[in-house]
Amino acid sequence: MSETSNPLHTALSLAASGVPVLPLRRGKVPFGNCRSCAGNACGGRPNMKHAGPCRCPGVCHAWAAATPVPVVITSPSWAAAWRQAVCVGYHPGGGGVTVVDLDNAEAITWARGALPATRTVPTTRGEHWIYRGTMRSVNAVRNGVDIKSTMSYARYLGPGTGTMTALPDAVRALAVKEPSPVRLARHAVAVPARSGTGECRHRTPVYLERGIAMAEQRITEARSAIHATVYRTFLAVLSAHGRCGCLTDAHVTRLFTAAQAKGETARHCTDAWTNARTALGM
Question: In this predicted model, what pLDDT tens digit does every residue of 193-218 receive, in sequence order?
C-alpha cells in the first residue's frame, strides 16, 4: 500500500482509535531532539516511557513523542514537523500491538510456516504481521525479521487485511536471546554452601518453586525501573535461598531468562546478580 499523501489527516484518524502517532521525516525516521534535549541534556525519558523533564512541546525523543491526543498532534509546535513529514509513524506497544516486520521474501516464507496467520500489511520490501498484545522490541531476531512493539515505532502503511490474532508464544520466544542459559548459570550460581546441619526447609519443592515463580512474575510484570526491579528481585531470591545451596542452574537460568525478556542484557543480569551477592556478603 502506498504511503498517504496527507500524513496529518492519517495521524488524526489513527489517534481517534487510540493509536499513538508521530510524524516521520525524510528517510522515514523520527525528528531529532530539540535543542534543549540535544545530547540528552534534558536527562532523557524517565523509564523510557515519555518525553523528558524538559517537557518540550515539540516532536522530540523519537518514538516517545508518539501521542494519541489530537490537541497535541495539531498544536503549533508540531506544525512545522507535519509540513516536512513524508509519512506517519506509530508506537505499536502504545497501541497494544506487536509488529513482526518481514523485510524480504525469505522472511515471509518463514513466517507463513512458523507463525499463526494475523492481520497483514504489505510494505515496500515485505510485509508487516500485526498481532494483538505487546512485548519488548528486538531487531534482527532472524534474517530479515524485526519485532516492533514497546519502545519502538513502525511506519503506518494502511489497515491491512485479515483478522488480528493474539500475540503467539512463537513470536515472544524470538526475543529471548541465546547467550546460552548454561553459560549464564555458570556466572550466577556460585553461591556458598549452607552452613549448619539438618534438612534445609527450602528444599521442599513447593516452597522453592513458589519463590522462583514469584520472582519471575515480579520481573515480568515490571512496567518501569527494570534494572532496579531485577536487582531487588535477585537480592530477595539470594537472601531467601542463596546461603543454603538450594539454587540450581535451572532456577537461576529462569531468573536470567525473565530479565532478558524485559530487555536486560546478559551482562546486566550477571552484574545485578554479583552486586546482590556482594550486598549480602556472599
Answer: 333 333 455 555 677 777 888 888 88
Angle at 67 between CA 218 and CA 33, to 5 degrees: 95
Dihedral through CA 160, CA 163, CA 168, CA 171, nearest 10? -10
Residue carrying C-alpha cell 516492533: 148
The label of the residue with cell 531467601 reads 240
Quick one: which of 134, 203, 230, 132 has its CA closest to 175?
A: 134
pLDDT 10s digits, 105-162: 999 999 999 999 999 999 999 999 999 999 989 888 899 999 999 889 999 999 999 9
Model pTM greater than 0.85?
no
